[in-house]
Design brief:
alpha/beta; Metallo-beta-lactamase, Chain A; 2 domains; 7-stranded mixed beta sheet; 6-stranded mixed beta sheet; 14 helices
Length: 389
Amino acid sequence: MSNEKKNLSRRDFVKGAATGALVGAFAGMGMYSYTPWSYDRLPEVQRKQHDFGACRSIRITNISETSWFNNAHLIGDIHEAGGLLVNQYTLNWAPFANGKGSAMGSYEDGISTIKDLIPHDIEKAWDIQKKLALHPENPGGYSCLIEVEALDGSMHKYLLDTGWSYSWMNDCFKREGVDQMLRDQQIEALFISHEHWDHFWGLPVTMKYDNRIPLYVHDGFYKEGLQYIKDSGYKGEPVIVNQPVTEIAPGVALLKFNVPIINRVFGETSLAFNIKDKGLVLVSGCCHQGVLKFADFAYANLKYDQDRFYGIYGGLHISPFEDWDPKYDDLVISLGEWDFERIGCNHCTGHLTAKKFIEAGYPVVRGTARFRSASKDYLGNGDKITFGV
């Protein structure tokens, strides 16, 4: 985002809707949020502009964005167990199922059935859990491979998240050659965006191929999640992210957000990349912090080329269950104020949201709807996107 647009865009994007809500029916239509007089009520942003260097380009391969295959089964299981505040480890989903039914699971019971098998025999472990779990065919997972070209031309590979189903993720890793990259220790780090089932529970699949890969997790992980890292066969010491900005490499930074998430999960980390001569690229797993907060934090805290937002990729958490609320239209409108040149969305963005982006004329990179992805309106399983080339 350029300096000349920063005040208008930032205020519109972050707080316009909240200000507009005070003026009654007109605000209810989302109109006041986008009028000039609403901006005068908002404070100026004090930008820290943390300089984290630059890289030449990045390429992202969508290993899997299909976290589950049936919304009704997922929502029904959560509802039956007691709702959104229920501890995820009690839901009786694989790999922490004990066969006792809804809300009767526990980390200890579930892991005891497979602990001796992971990570070396994930196939057998998953088969055991399928016999104990609710809706055992529903899990999929979210994971992407990020390849960063440094300014000196060297290439660096990272994983964001490791999915859910051992079986599904192992097949996806093999499809994209990630299994061999891990064996050869070509992947320099694994970032777990947050502790949710579909981003984290597939950890033994990564551990099967490289159990010493540098591993980064949010400091809000619960004791079960930290224990699972050990029980999955990890032989290193995870990096517990406790700072707002963690530099990973020139042009690569990990951003930490403290936010409560459904099913007793806390906190999310996302990635930022400064592409030389192009600008900032934001990459998220689920973006539970909200796309507004994500962009606002980056604007306020990071220094990036051309002082503009260049691209965004990942789950943006707008219509994850393919429903639509009129308030989401404010998010669609607001996204345009940041003037992204390339938008790659999938997963919990929802394909309805992707369609709205396209209808709004945004530069959405479309996919191929292969490997059980639901729509060509977003980047599906096996699809790729590049920034800076």
